[in-house]
Amino acid sequence: MTEQKQMEEEQQQLAEQMGMLEVTPDNPLYSDFDQIRAAGIRATALTQRILTFSRQQRIEMKPIRISRVISDFVATLRRIIGERIDIQLQLASDLRVVQADVSQIEQILLNLVINARDAIEGNGTITITTALVRPEDTDFP
Asked: What is the tally of structural domains in the chain?
């Protein structure tokens, strides 16, 4: 079993174990469990970055549809960020296929969603939107 696969399985087991605890936001332990979950996520992200940097994690570029990757990954994101934050999707169906590594796209999404969650005090909503943008339609230099 590769290190990447083992790490993914351990992350899934941790998420399942955290989900089994069923601590509601009004429970005094909720904040502690939320901090533990966030620390686990940060540790996983750091490990993935170290493996990528050291070239032990193989980057697998393949044709993907970004909106599909997001919709497939959103359940995991919802479990990770907790119940106080809702995730809304506004995904375009007309996007072109791109060459990318799915695990890297998921890591980017995870980092963005965690940063957004940490910026929200109390309850809130994170909206993930995809759209087809052409260079001539932007103000890029």
From this structure: 1
